[in-house]
Amino acid sequence: MNATSFEKGLLVYFRVLMGWTFLYASSHQLFDPNFSASGFLEHTKTFHSFFVLFAAPAIRPVTDFLVEWGHLLIGLSLLSGLLVRVSGVFGILLLVTYYFAHMDFPYIESKLNFIVDYHLVYAGVIAYLMAKQAGHVLGLDGVVARTAFVKTHPGMAALV
Question: Is the pTM of this model over 0.85?
Fold first, then answer.
């Protein structure tokens, strides 16, 4: 990667900020015994019939588990720089899901956000981190990519 020191600093900065954002979200969910994503999902406006499916009593435990642990794992991955490409895909998927779930078309969350909100910005930042291989800059992806295991299994190189 041919990046300037400034660009490398920005990659680490954005990776840590996004990692902290996901990790902080998981801390509220994992340590709150009353957490359930169903309250949020039951009050969506746009695409309500789709999102309410995930709040059904039979599916609710799976949805809650995926939300809580998804935030945690994405956050840890971005903070450590390990498997950034993998966690990035799930992070973008989660953010785009939240974007549509918050939508009261054409507004997002409130009348202050017309079509665009921070979920799309965050998804763009994660896509940028993936494209620039941000896990190789002061992250564990660079360390893992140099291991003999990855060198003998080229398919693994795509993950790091």
Answer: yes
